[in-house]
Amino acid sequence: MRLRTLFTAVACAALTVAVSTAYAQRLSPGQTAGQVNLRGMNQFKTGLDGGGDFDWYEVGARIGALHQFNQTFAVGASVDYSYQKWNWNNPGALGSVAPWSGINTTRLGLNLTYAPSQDLRFSVIPTIEWSGESGVGASDSSLYGGLASVTKTFSPDFTLGIGAGVFREFDRTSAFPFLVINWKITDRLTLKNPLPAGPAGGAGLELEYVANDRWTLGLGGAWRKYRFRLNDSGPFAGGVGQNRMIPVFARASYAFTRTTAVDLYAFATFAGNVQVQSADQQTTLNTGYNTGFGLAVNFTHRF
């Protein structure tokens, strides 16, 4: 996944720091590499602390490309769209009404990478996103910000870096640090970032095991939070919704060819919380939810 909730791991609008680094390491000046992702996921019925329950599913697609201009400079761009459908059953702590239903999210990103030497790389990723229920205009649903990072390759098996993200989310600004790592512990075992850093949070960590030429297994987790504008016809007209959680996942990936693969995920979301805020910011309702479970699938083709 790159989850916009969980698997922005399956896809994110900006080409991520980890992905751009991998691309740049294998591209020669003048070359372009691209990637297409199609994804779907579902969190099954999950109980709310204040009574009631919910479930949701998401479908999405992303396309991105990176062009290596010369030995030191590369530029990437991407676009991502997702639709998330929520179903509610008497959410007591949220007024016993469904606070939102369908959420549309479109994200555009650029990736500027500068590598003054083979072992040092700087990346800046500005992003703009429109996230809201159906009927919400672009001007009311826009979020924007960016990521900056620096990575150093200490050996062919170990790359480490740090980064920070700053995003404007309607009525507030959020900032967070994240770690960039790609550590090939053995020929088969690697510790890396599975999830792209972005508006929903930092990049997370995943321990990946290469079983053979076709199968790869992984276990990882991250922290995620995302916000979206509510439409004018719901119970919290013009307000803001939010979902926050710590997703932990297991992954099994199968490579059909060197450029085409499918990822299958089983995930659990811990410390979950949903929140709704009125348009005048005078009323905020929130409730935690039980550990949620779900499945996701991601199809990737690189070109």
Characterization of this structure:
With 303 residues, the chain is mainly β. The protein has one domain: Porin, CATH 2.40.160.40. The chain contains 2 helices and 17 strands. The chain has helices spanning 17-26, 138-141, and strands spanning 8-9, 32-47, 53-68, 73-89, 102-117, 120-133, 142-155, 158-169, 172-184, 189-192, 205-210, 215-221, 224-229, 240-255, 260-277, 284-289, 292-302. The longest helix has 10 residues, at 17-26. The chain is globular, with a radius of gyration of 19 Å.
Predict the CATH topology.
Answer: Porin
Main sheet overview: 14 strands, antiparallel, barrel
Which CATH class applies here?
Answer: Mainly Beta
Q: Cα-atom Rg, whole angstroms?
A: 19 Å
Q: Which stretches of 5+ consecutive residues score pLDDT under 50?
A: 1-24
Quickly count the domains: 1
Please state the average pLDDT score: 89
> How many beta-strand segments?
17
> Any idea what the shape is?
globular
In spatial order, strands of the major sheet run 2-3-4-5-6-7-8-9-10-11-12-14-15-17
Share of residues in strands: over 45%
Structural class: mainly beta
Protein name: DUF6268 domain-containing protein
Keywords: Signal
Organism: Orrella marina
Main features:
single chain; 2 helices; 5% helix; 303 residues; disordered N terminus; signal; 14-stranded antiparallel barrel; Porin; 17 strands; mainly beta; DUF6268 domain-containing protein; DUF6268
